[in-house]
């Protein structure tokens, strides 16, 4: 069970992700979470660092899409600022939208990775689909109300992961 919450890679920030790590694993697509992964939820467009990150991915031959449980307005605007395709109301950790991404790109699960800040959505959802999962620390402590609830459960999962010596908060892989 805890396997589903165990990321392949645990980083402080997306900025610490070296595209070469993905290339070595033959990953062709990175599915990006938005809120608290690339930006705070009240930042409407991508900043220069997020834009530079997506450019580094593309330079390494890796496609990027954003996939968020947030609404169309939020997700489409943010995606436009990064010039990448988007998936909104994605119902992570359900499989529905991941399947759509795979259909749209023609890729297999082992060619895709996800990066996000939440164990209960990004990591659980990616794991259920057999994707490579990358966990980051939330950019800021501000969260939308629904996420605040998720965080309560998430804290329990972090505790279990630490207890089983699988993952320790703040003890990053690179
Ligand atoms: Mg998030």
Automatic annotation (TrEMBL):
<dbReference type="GO" id="GO:0005737">
    <property type="term" value="C:cytoplasm"/>
</dbReference>
<dbReference type="InterPro" id="IPR010021">
    <property type="entry name" value="PGPP1/Gep4"/>
</dbReference>
<dbReference type="InterPro" id="IPR023214">
    <property type="entry name" value="HAD_sf"/>
</dbReference>
<dbReference type="GO" id="GO:0008962">
    <property type="term" value="F:phosphatidylglycerophosphatase activity"/>
</dbReference>
<dbReference type="InterPro" id="IPR036412">
    <property type="entry name" value="HAD-like_sf"/>
</dbReference>
<protein>
    <submittedName>
        <fullName>YqeG family HAD IIIA-type phosphatase</fullName>
    </submittedName>
</protein>
<dbReference type="InterPro" id="IPR006549">
    <property type="entry name" value="HAD-SF_hydro_IIIA"/>
</dbReference>
<dbReference type="Pfam" id="PF00702">
    <property type="entry name" value="Hydrolase"/>
</dbReference>
<dbReference type="InterPro" id="IPR006439">
    <property type="entry name" value="HAD-SF_hydro_IA"/>
</dbReference>
